[in-house]
Amino acid sequence: MIEESKQTEQTENINANVTEESNNSAEMSADMETQLNSEVVTSDTTPEQETSSAAEAAEWEEMEAEIAALEQQVNLLKTQLEERTSQYMRIAADFDNFRKRSQKEKEELDQQVKCNTIGSLLPVVDNFERAQAQIKPQTEPEKNIHKSYQSIYKQMVTALKSLGVSPMRPKGQEFNPTLHEAAIQEPTNEYPEGTVIDELIPGYFLGEKVLRHAVVKVAAPGEHMVPSEESQPESPES
C-alpha cells in the first residue's frame, strides 16, 4: 500500500510537471505570436510613414523652387522697371530741352524777323528827318505840305516806339564799338579823346538789342592841346 501510494504521488508529480511545462510552452507561444504580430504591424506601418515624409520633402522642395523662381521674376521686373524709369527720365529731359530750345529759337527768329522788318523802315525815317532839317517852307502851301508829311513821320515814330524801338542818342558818350560805328575822327580840344561828338546816322535799340549801330564822329586829340601838368616834362632847373 505504501508503495502504491508512492507511485501515485510520483505519477501526480510527473503530471504536474507536464502540465506546468505545457502551460509554459503555451505562454511562450503566445509571447512569440504577440512579438511576431508586433513586428508585422511595425513592418507594415514604416513604409507608409517613409512615403509620407518623402512626399512632404518633395512638396517643400517644389515650393522652395517656386519661391526662388518668383523672387527671380520679381528681381527681373524690378530691373526692367528701373531701366524703363531711367529711359523715361532721359526722354522727358530731352523733350524739355527740345521744348526750351525750340522756344528760344522761335523767339530769336521772331526777333530777327522783327529786326529785319523794322530795320527796313529806318531809312524812311532818316529821309523824313533829313527833309525836316533841310526843307524850310516859306509859303502857306509849302507849310501845309510840310505839316502833312510830318504827321506821317510822327505816326511812324509812334508805331516804332510801340514796337520797342528807342534811339541811342550817343552824343557826348564814350565811343563804344558794340554800339557805335566811327566814320570820322575829328581833332578837338572841346571833348576828351574817344568821345562821340556828333551822330551822323542815328542808331536804334529794339528792346535791349542793337537794331542799328549809330554812325558817329569821334573826338581825336587836338593839334594844339596844352599838355597837363602831370604830362609836362620836368624842368632841368627843378
TrEMBL record:
Listed under GO biological process in this entry are: protein folding
Please give the residue ranges the record annotates as the region Disordered: 1-58
| Organism phylogeny | Bacteria, Bacillati, Cyanobacteriota, Cyanophyceae, Oscillatoriophycideae
| PANTHER family to which the protein is assigned, alphabetical | GRPE PROTEIN, GRPE PROTEIN HOMOLOG, MITOCHONDRIAL
InterPro entries given in the database record: GrpE, GrpE_CC, GrpE_head
Q: Which organism is it from?
A: [Phormidium ambiguum] IAM M-71
Subcellular locations according to the entry: Cytoplasm
Spell out the subunit comment: Homodimer.
Keywords, sorted A to Z: Chaperone, Cytoplasm, Stress response
Query: By what name is this protein known?
Result: Protein GrpE
Determine if Ribonucleoprotein is one of this entry's keywords.
no
GO MF annotation terms: adenyl-nucleotide exchange factor activity; protein homodimerization activity; protein-folding chaperone binding; unfolded protein binding
